[in-house]
Amino acid sequence: MTDSGFTVDVDQNQYLPEGGREVSAIVTVTAGEDAAGLSGSGPAGGEPGSAEIIIIDCSGSMEYPHTKIAEARAATAAAVDVVRDGVWFAVIAGTELARPVFPADGSMARADSSSRAAARQAVAGLRAEGGTAIGQWLMLAREVFEAYPAKLRHVILLTDGQNQHESPEQLAAAVGQCEGVFSCDCRGVGTDWEVKELRTISTALLGTVDIVPDPSGLAADFAAMMESAMGKQVADVALRVWTPQKASVKFVKQVAPVVDDLTGRRTASGPQSGDYPTGAWGPNESRDYHVGIEVTPAGVGQPETLAARVSLVADSPSGAEVLGQGKILANWTDDEALSTKINPRVAHYTGQAELAAAIQDGLEARKQGDEETATAKLGRAVALAHQSGNEDTAKLLAKVVDVVDVETGTVRLKKQVEDADEMALDTRSTKTVRSKK
Fold first, then answer.
1. Using one digit for the tens of pLDDT, what is the confidence trace for 38-82?
2. What is the pLDDT of residues 97-156, one digit of tens each?
3. Which of 103, 143, 144 is closest to 123 using CA atoms?
4. Residue 15 CB coordination number (10 Å)
5. Does the predicted model carry a pTM greater than 0.90?
6. Contact 37, 316 (CB under 8 A)
7. d(C-alpha 185, C-alpha 215), whole Å
8. Where are the beta strands (DSSP E) in 260-304?
9. What residues are paired with 238 via a beta bridge?
């Protein structure tokens, strides 16, 4: 454990065959009990500390059934109750426009017993009418946040429908402007919203996406999300990968607790060096990353080569503060037993990434009426879930296909599938089973 409270561990098979060019490693980053606020990130309740915004869909469809808007109000109140004293917070209502609900002037309030009571009262007056323009909602959140110095900025966004009152390009532009400003956990209530739409937002904004099929489940889910946000203590942490001149990064993916490809999100941080965003961290949090490096081969028997150096960095007034570091190495050998041995953790997470892709491709093929592809992809997913011990995903798959042979992944598509079951499988397809060292 470093002074920062973080550790960076590298797990790999560093032996390559003669002429081998690809090095794969699993990088495990762990925040300990003492991974407290660095560089002014502060504990979540401190100054400049945290800021929270809850965005509630108040479009007309939230009135059908009426329990949706009623439970959304109750869920917002439940989340407000969890906001700790001293944290900045606000509530926004979303229709084809976005408007501040609390504080009504578009500012933020410091959480205490009186401000939480005032927020609950304001939220009790929310009514459902109008359309849906999620980009507008996100842009108002950005505007509100920018007037406050908090480093840890987090949004909970709830919707029940599709983004019908602005173009996909407008939504994409809004999401792009919010990247790096705040993180966003998205929830869809009911089954009339688009998983792909919310996943695009949550992925870009380093958050989560999930379905709440029954509105009665909203309050517990909102409270849990806010509890998690209150536990974050270190903001804007990045995985920095440096390679020597004869090497380059092929990919960087988070693989636990969920699959998230960060490769395209690299920002240059120096010669041969790039940063990949990981968002905010709380104590006792651990994540795994799969890093692929392409190297120029050295001769068999040559000294081991440094293929890459992986650092965890956070912003500080004096520049990037290194929280932990690990090395990815390469050795060339003519010993086939060494060079062909696949690191079990690399193999496990390669399978988990394939599992997520197989589910998403299979469900898309099913939607398009391509039963042959859907059966093949979802069958492969069943086999992968079984092999990796991913029981939660296996249970979700069993609601969409009838499993004939789990070992070979032989399945039949079910004739009737509940929309909520299909959407739950889609939203949770990226959740992985942790590989033990």
1. 444 444 334 448 999 999 999 999 999 999 999 999 999 999 999
2. 999 999 999 999 999 999 999 999 999 999 999 999 999 999 999 999 999 989 999 999
3. 103
4. 20
5. yes
6. no
7. 17
8. 260-261, 267-270, 273-281, 286-295
9. 277, 313
